[in-house]
Automatic annotation (TrEMBL):
<dbReference type="InterPro" id="IPR029058">
    <property type="entry name" value="AB_hydrolase_fold"/>
</dbReference>
<dbReference type="InterPro" id="IPR049492">
    <property type="entry name" value="BD-FAE-like_dom"/>
</dbReference>
<dbReference type="Pfam" id="PF20434">
    <property type="entry name" value="BD-FAE"/>
</dbReference>
<keyword id="KW-0378">Hydrolase</keyword>
<dbReference type="InterPro" id="IPR050300">
    <property type="entry name" value="GDXG_lipolytic_enzyme"/>
</dbReference>
<feature type="domain" description="BD-FAE-like">
    <location>
        <begin position="53"/>
        <end position="249"/>
    </location>
</feature>
<protein>
    <submittedName>
        <fullName>Acetyl esterase/lipase</fullName>
    </submittedName>
</protein>
<dbReference type="GO" id="GO:0016787">
    <property type="term" value="F:hydrolase activity"/>
</dbReference>
Length: 287
């Protein structure tokens, strides 16, 4: 026997329409709740024209889940620009999905005017981090920070991670870093000339400046985990600089990983960078 429905077909059509529209409304609300991606160019953290940073905030970010990766460019403390990061930005996005990313400019030493001797660069990173911390809530990102850099930028990242460390620095990623400027001084004529100018003397005439500018001298047991990479054929910063860092981190019992990169010099191929960045993400895990 066929049982008659108590409700006409038009009722079920109406009910389905209401449920469908309600579901669409929820999806729209969820989409609206998600913050869109945002890029902030040349944000000033000081009055000098070089004291600027670029900020890349991902879509759907939140203060609970969105961590921050900061990149410091290289250039021997006399050259370079934050735009260097754009060369590896797609690779970083693949290796560290969902991260906010910040790339920093800092004052460079000028041979002509002899302005901005070290520690101007160190002071700029401290000022930039202070500015970033003041903006974390506004940017809707967390307090978990990874510092990274290449060459002179790696030196500054390590120096800040150890000497000027704050608890929100959860790790450091360093590519072919200078770590002991006293031993680096005599590597070649360019190194000797450059460091004499930038530091305002030699390791014999201003030893404290060299010691205070060398990350290896500040490694201690409560410093952040560190992963660092060095090309075996590097002719600009010798691998002994990373070997000295490895010794300092072992002695201080700091979690670390030192990766020697065969057949690579002072700068890696895109394929190598991609693999190393993934290795770095694995090293840090979900900090």
């Amino acid at each position: 026997m066929k049982i008659q429905s108590l409700f006409p077909k038009s009722f079920f059509v109406f009910l389905f329409s209401i449920l469908f529209l309600y579901g669409c409304s929820l999806n729209q609300e969820n989409e609206l709740d998600q913050l869109p991606a945002l890029e902030i160019s040349n944000a000033s953290y000081g009055i000098d024209p070089r004291q600027k940073m670029d900020v890349f905030l991902p879509a759907g970010r939140s203060a609970e889940k969105t961590r921050v990766l900061i990149y410091i460019h290289g250039g021997a403390w006399i050259d370079g620009d934050k735009s260097e990061f754009l060369q590896v930005k797609p690779l970083v996005e693949q290796a560290f999905p969902g991260f906010a990313m910040i790339t920093i400019n800092y004052r460079l030493y000028d041979f002509a005017s002899r302005q901005n001797r070290f520690p101007a660069q160190e002071e700029d990173i401290k000022a930039a981090l202070l500015y970033i911390r003041s903006k974390l809530a506004e940017w809707d990102v967390s307090e978990g920070i990874l510092l990274s850099g290449a060459s002179a930028g790696a030196h500054l990242a390590l120096l800040h991670g150890y000497k000027n460390r704050e608890d929100d620095i959860k790790g450091v990623i360093a590519f072919f870093p200078p770590t002991d400027l006293t031993s680096l001084f005599g590597f070649n004529n360019l190194t000797t000339l450059g460091l004499t100018e930038i530091m305002g003397g030699t390791p014999q005439t201003v030893p404290l400046i060299y010691q205070n500018a060398s990350p290896v001298n500040f490694a201690s047991s409560d410093d952040p985990p560190t992963i660092f990479f060095h090309g075996e054929t590097d002719q600009v910063v010798p691998m002994t600089q990373s070997e000295r860092l490895e010794t300092a981190l072992k002695n201080a019992q700091i979690k670390h990983e030192f990766v020697r990169v065969p057949n690579q010099g002072h700068g890696f191929t895109a394929e190598t960078n991609a693999a190393l960045l993934i290795q770095a993400n694995t090293f840090f895990g979900d900090f």
